[in-house]
UniProtKB/TrEMBL annotation:
A Pfam family the protein falls into: HSP70
Gene Ontology MF terms: ATP binding; ATP-dependent protein folding chaperone
Cellular component, GO annotation: cytosol; nucleus
Source domain of life: Eukaryota
UniProt KW ATP-binding keyword: yes
Name the record gives this protein: Uncharacterized protein
Compositional bias segments (type: Low complexity): 491-503
Keywords, ordered alphabetically: ATP-binding, Nucleotide-binding
Residue ranges, compositional bias (Polar residues): 13-22
UniProt keyword Nucleotide-binding, yes or no: yes
Length: 774
């Protein structure tokens, strides 16, 4: 939800101010991005937001208008039309700001430096190509550049479920684990089946009812309340209550509260009390649980369809499912749970996942997997294409004029090729197939027209490569012309310059050899409701201007609040002897009180709409009188602690001087160095006690002569002199001289070491006795 006032208010701030700023508070952006203004889905959705003025948004490039919103932004009285994609981007950026603020907690790094760089945005799986491109443009408009992937919400839920179980080795490659995920949020109901094996997640099926959610249960109860109100007061009313925007919101809020009351097991009744509902009439009634379930029965009957379709598409039965996980706030409705158990014919629904955050957690995990900033074990995620896409063309020699290029359930990103025989420029069209079967209006059938500039008039094969990227958006990958041309190298004579004499003669003129030549062709793509780079840049500049205006308003408001808080905070402190009263002279307190009262009157009269600079100046004027008094209190409170710390250091250093003289540990310290420490201790001690005597004779409302800062400076001075002496390391002992080693005799030529005779000793050469034989 985004509210436009003197500044933008997003999320909870917009919710709290919705009733007073109904016309400029926008919600439901996700369900409107990428839709034409006259799209039946858009017309149905816009009825949920009475009071908001929707308008066609015309692009500079022309084409079908998309959806815009008329707002009053800032101080301007003029209405401005902003595209719904831009508003959706504002909501996403607000989420990034929340994440950055959370990351900055407990650190010195400002939140602005921790804004997310890598994004995975979860989207409904029923989003068409135009809706995906619309959300992509919204991200770029608000400065979100690092979108790594648009991920289906059901796939994000499955990833959040499976990746941690995979780490725990709970999956078996021989026996795949099939899990059904049922997600019912505020506005849509999705049933998906995923198969898990070690290291891989495969989406087998995803079916949804995009117009069934918790708000439909709220509306059913709201219509019941409105009907009872009309029956009671009849002709006394000035109109239908559901046609009055503020009355509509009151009834819808009461209906939601009644729904939540009746959801837990055992609750039989919900009281509904609405004061001053309309035309000064109050209304009170009770809704019994039996009535509630009867009212909601048509909605409950719609739960079975997507479940049955998902099982059929995955070729499974409920008995083949390992678990049925339910997520989304609306799965907490008691009658919804009971109906799901009945449809699936199972005993329990699994609630091991966080019903509100499972999608966000899955998107965060996917971001970590894709981001180069994290090192994560590979995990294969196979998304499922929600709608079949066909490519069609006109003319040519082909037997068919279209082909299904991307089947439903096909994983992406993927590149497919179609080869046509064409001469000259031509085009191919991509569109959704069987749109009615998948709940899409006929106007949403067209996806893109690809124009290929073929420079030749002769018909040649042209390969058109079309890609469905990681976001599920169709893009042109490349176009290539393939020609068969004569190979001049093949016509050259054999080696020796003459043909072999015994070569067999060819009948008639021999066929010349040919080779394949590939030429890349220029191509372009045009898409309905597309955003050009110039349009994105234009609205990016508007977003920057809005952000700057928001910053000024917020900073001004913060400064005004700071001034107001100081005025009220100091009122009691100055007059109380238990706080600041004893630290200010009567003259100072009187002057401050006079200035404070004058400032308070100014703040609520002439200064109500002042600028940040003026508030800062006024605060500085008041603090010039209050700060000296507060400083005296701070000095009085902190002085004993820093004096005690200094005294402790003096005692420690003095004791060291006395003990070190007789200690072998400090025998390397000279007497001059010890005297240096003793002298500095005596100097600092004398200064401290002199100042303490002076301070003792002063009153609390006088500026101190012994300040905390001066004591800390003296403490540092003492440490700078004494610590180097005390921590002086002992000199290293000199290494002992080793006696010279005997010279090692060099080996002789025959490999034996020569004996070196000792001086004064004769050696005898020993000879072996030999036996002579005849």
């Amino acid at each position: 939800m985004v509210g436009f006032d003197e500044c933008r208010r997003v999320g909870e701030q917009a919710t709290s101010g919705q009733s007073s700023n109904l016309k400029n508070t926008i919600k439901g952006m996700k369900r409107l991005v990428g839709l034409a203004f006259d799209d039946p889905r858009a017309e149905k959705e816009m009825k949920w937001y009475p009071g908001v003025t929707f308008a066609p948004f015309e692009r500079s490039s022309g084409g079908t208008p998309s959806i815009g919103v008329k707002i009053h932004a800032g101080d301007s009285e003029k209405e401005t039309v902003v595209p719904i994609e831009m508003v959706a981007g504002m909501m996403l950026r607000h989420m990034g700001d929340i994440a950055a603020a959370k990351a900055a907690e407990g650190t010195s790094t400002p939140a602005s430096e921790l804004f997310p760089q890598d994004w995975v945005v979860a989207i409904p799986n029923y989003f068409t190509d135009a809706q995906r491109r619309g959300l992509q443009a919204g991200c770029e408009i608000v400065g979100i550049k690092g979108v790594l992937r648009f991920m289906h919400e059901n796939t994000a839920t499955a990833l959040s479920y499976g990746i941690f179980k995979d780490l725990k080795k709970e999956f078996d490659a021989e026996k795949p684990t099939n899990v059904m995920f049922i997600d019912m949020g505020a506005s849509a109901y999705t049933v998906s089946i995923a198969t898990f094996i070690p290291g891989q997640l495969i989406v087998k099926s995803a079916q949804c009812d995009s117009e069934l959610g918790g708000r439909d249960f709220d509306m059913a109860v709201a219509n019941w309340i409105a009907s009872g109100f009309e029956q009671k007061f009849g002709s006394k009313l000035s109109g239908k209550p559901m046609d009055k925007p503020k009355t509509y919101l009151k009834i819808l809020a009461a209906a939601e509260a009644a729904k939540k009351t009746l959801s837990p097991v055992g609750v039989k009744e919900a009281r509904i009390n609405l004061e001053m509902l309309m035309d000064d009439f109050d209304f009170s009634t009770s809704l019994k649980v039996e009535e509630y379930e009867a009212i909601c029965q048509p909605l409950l009957d719609r739960l079975a369809g997507p479940i049955q379709k998902a099982l059929e598409e995955a070729k499974l039965t409920s008995a083949d499912l390992t678990a049925v996980e339910i997520v989304g706030g609306s799965t907490r409705i008691g009658c919804v749970k009971r109906k799901l158990l009945e449809i699936l014919n199972i005993e329990n629904l699994s609630t091991t996942m966080n019903a509100d955050e499972s999608v966000a957690r899955g998107a965060a995990l996917q971001s970590a997997i894709l981001s180069p900033r994290f090192k994560v074990l590979p995990y294969d995620i196979q998304e499922a294409q929600p709608f079949p896409i066909k490519v069609s063309w006109e003319g040519g020699v082909e037997e068919t004029s279209s082909v299904t290029m991307f089947n439903r359930g096909l994983t992406f990103p993927i590149v497919r090729r179609v080869t046509l025989k064409r001469g000259g420029p031509f085009s191919v069209k991509a569109s959704y197939e069987d749109v009615e079967q998948y709940g899409l209006p006929a106007a949403a059938e067209e996806i893109a027209t690809i124009n290929i500039d073929n420079p030749t008039t002769a018909e040649n094969k042209v390969r058109v490569n079309i890609k469905q990227d990681i976001h599920g958006i169709l893009v042109i990958s490349s176009a290539q012309m393939v020609e068969e041309i004569e190979d001049p190298e093949a016509e050259q004579p054999a080696a020796g310059g003459e043909a072999a004499a015994d070569a067999p003669a060819e009948d008639g003129e021999g066929e010349k050899k040919k080779k394949i030549k590939k030429t890349n062709l220029t191509c372009s793509i045009s898409r309905p409701l597309d955003w050009s780079a110039d349009e994105i840049n234009k609205y990016y500049e508007i977003e920057v201007a809005m952000a700057n205006a928001d910053r000024i308003v917020i900073e001004t408001s913060n400064m005004r609040n700071e001034l107001e808080s100081y005025i009220y905070g100091m009122r009691d402190k100055i007059s109380s002897d238990s706080q600041l009263g004893l630290f200010g002279t009567p003259e100072e307190k009187a002057a401050f009180a006079e200035k404070r009262d004058a400032m308070e009157n100014w703040l609520y009269e002439d200064g109500f709409d002042a600028t940040k600079k003026v508030y800062a100046e006024k605060l500085a004027e008041l603090k010039a009188l209050g700060d000296p008094i507060e400083k005296r209190q701070v000095e009085s409170q902190e002085r004993p602690g820093v004096v005690s710390s200094l005294q402790s250091s003096l005692e420690s250093y003095t004791a060291w001087v006395n003990e070190s003289q007789a200690s072998e540990t400090y025998e390397h310290i000279t007497d001059e160095e010890r005297e240096k420490v003793r002298s500095k201790c005596d100097e600092i001690s004398a200064w401290m006690y002199e100042k303490l005597d002076q301070q003792a004779g002063m009153s609390l409302d006088e500026n101190p002569v012994l300040t905390v800062h001066s004591i800390r400076l003296k403490h540092k001075e003492l440490a700078d002199v004494c610590s180097p002496v005390i921590n002086k390391p002992k000199p290293k002992p000199k290494p002992k001289e080793e006696p010279p080693k005997d010279p090692t005799p060099e080996p002789s030529e025959d490999g034996k070491k020569e004996e070196v005779p000792m001086e004064g000793v004769e050696t005898e050469e020993k000879t072996e006795d030999k036996m002579e034989t005849d």
